[in-house]
Amino acid sequence: MSLELYYWDGLQGRGEFVRLALEEAGADYVEVARGEPSEGLGTGAMMAVMKSRDEPYPPFAPPFLKDGDLVIAQTANILFYLGPRLNLAPSVESLRYVANGLQLTIADVVTEAHDTHHPLAASLYYEDQKDAAKTRAHDFIDNRIPKFMKYFERVLKQNPAGDTFMVGDSLTYVDLSMFQLIDGLLYAFPRALKRFGEQYPRLAALHAAVMERPNIAAYLQSERRIEHNEACIFRRYPELDKAAA
Amino acid sequence: MSLELYYWDGLQGRGEFVRLALEEAGADYVEVARGEPSEGLGTGAMMAVMKSRDEPYPPFAPPFLKDGDLVIAQTANILFYLGPRLNLAPSVESLRYVANGLQLTIADVVTEAHDTHHPLAASLYYEDQKDAAKTRAHDFIDNRIPKFMKYFERVLKQNPAGDTFMVGDSLTYVDLSMFQLIDGLLYAFPRALKRFGEQYPRLAALHAAVMERPNIAAYLQSERRIEHNEACIFRRYPELDKAAA
């Protein structure tokens, strides 16, 4: 039976981190919210799972994954579950916790990237919190991006198996997520990241290497890869971008 | 060998979610940052691990746990690792992913609770972002707390094993973390949560039940339990609190 991925249609969002793992592995999966209501799919089918009053373990929000009867919520959790099944987790069990720790740190950056355009409330329009967004975005550029990226660069550098992968000596879902995080930041903050390749050579190499993997390259060219856009986490608002201090 | 918990001294913070699991289980653990430098402990010993240039898998931030050579970062990840070892995880393996999904949703609320007093930048003083904090805190009270708490109440209600525990039919670390989340919110936003017991009777019962467990009760009375305070995630700033809309 196919895996069912549930995520909002029309944007990459947090679903993209899961999608990249499924695509790299060539997994058989259904993108539920993007399907046809006449086939029992679509956003309504997704909302039905979330709002179900008899689902034993309902998810709070997308993305979530259904594998048979099991409903798995939260991006990092989905990847922790899928990793070994897709051959995208470290084979050494203890390193799976290292991978999960890194994935959760990536998730923290994703949340902070979202909050650059919505620092006051997700329920308010961006236009009604632009000044606050500018303050938060500039702090993100000056303080947070460098702090996180120096850390991730150091993780590559200190990896005892070499600086090609985030954990261990082969590709894991963490590398795919790291690619996506960098890609989103490059899209949203081109001025801030102008010197990214110089500053973080190992991360830049990882980003390039993931993009060239055959399955990922094919995916990125496909219609399944929705373009970065301003309904998403990573938004290109020129007024929030600036050269890093 | 003892487990080593690394977290900032002087506050409950995210370390408290791990601490409650260790205390409930009566585990043998060392609170590294609170120890004596003369014994190789203290905040300096914690910083040394974080800043180490030869640690194979350095953590980004506390809390992190050392179990022998393995360094495990991120609260939910630490609990996912410790859960089975402390007999605080579901015995059914698939339910461990349900537990982790819930734990990560609790972690999302914790981050949002933090951002009520620091919506613009962690690097700025609270006093320099008070107006923004008020907007964010009131949105948190009116929209986010109800959304999350209705969800968690529904998780209890829909649990096929009964509404006493968040997952399955016995205590897990998720229940302990749920206690701590509620406890922090009750401390920070007493006006907003005035009707908590009426609105969320199952969550209120869980909070009371955890507090009465012998090991937790003893811990809460001990000097190891640092009081809620305004250096922490959950801060009682009366100007941010209000009755829910």
UniProtKB/TrEMBL annotation, chains A, B:
PROSITE patterns: GST_CTER, GST_NTER. Residues 92-240 form the GST C-terminal domain. Pfam families: GST_C_3. Residues 1-90 form the GST N-terminal domain. The lineage of its organism: Bacteria, Pseudomonadati, Pseudomonadota, Betaproteobacteria, Burkholderiales. Keywords: Transferase. The keyword Transferase applies. This is Glutathione S-transferase domain.
